[in-house]
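Aim 2 progress. For Iron complex transport system permease protein, the working sequence is reproduced below.
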Amino acid sequence: MTRRFAALAALAVVCAGVELVAGRGMSPGVVWDVVHGGGDATERHIFLQLRLPRLLVSLGAGACLAVAGLVLQSALRNPLAGPEVTGVTPGAVLGAVTATALGLAGWDSPLAVVIAACTGGCAGAALLWLLAGRGRGDPAQTAVHGVLVSAVLGGLTAMVLLVEPGELGSVVQWLVGTTEGRVWQHWHLLWPWALVWGTAAWLLAGPLTLLRCGDDIALAAGLSARPARTLALLCAVALTAGAVAAVGALGFVGLLVPHLAVAVFGADLRVSLPGAALVGAVVVCGADAAAQLSSRLLSQGLDSGRLTLPVGALTACLGAALLLVVVRRTPSRTF
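Predicted structure tokens for this construct:
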């Protein structure tokens, strides 16, 4: 297990190095000079004030979404549960966009965005919980209701856009998910939020492990399922809201990364929760590096200096393709 953590940590370092040199405006040689104390004022500003906080935000957001997904899947005993299909992510997006349209929040007030996103995420999760009713334990029914809730919340977000068309840029950024333009203010807000709620989720590892086995087994072990599940869902919603407020809705990270983490680190959540955080950080960081490299190549090929591929579009496409491959290869498995 130690070797697996070490291997993932090494992979994270490699992905971080690639992301730092992948962006436009600075060559890898210039980045190397800045790291060693060289470079002019503009180059140091780009590296220290734009690239470095972008890297840290991508790592933190990936960790938040992965942990939130694993907590949701464990608490609901549903392998299809994730921020994307439980109303949490679209609710958080709706909350952030609505607050921005009303002038209550914006990119210059990230704390207000986090509060609005958290409120919207809680509302989306509560709506799914009410609609699912007695079928909450059925993965198929929960997934169907999750798609319905996501569609409704997405429609409400579109209505906000119609009322306030000037917010198109903000809506697109939150709907697709991007790390473009992230600065130290985003990181300073994200890391304590992620640390507090990530620690809370890890402290719930024991109860969550029992909840994965079913409410009857949890009750036999002396655990009251409802309060434990409520606390777990609160942690998941808070982690998702923090990630969405920082980078928007990154598709499929919270749905697929937990499965990968459990496959690598096992079902003991005391180990797999930190493992999921590390895997999520590696996935988002690697996807962001790939998105920046793709943007640079596309800009050169199409002769367009302003073409930018958002990392959320890349994670959504790759995640959907991976999910399709898994389902087709294991048709008898219940998802």
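Residues 76-183+235-251 form one domain. This observation will guide construct design in the next reporting period.
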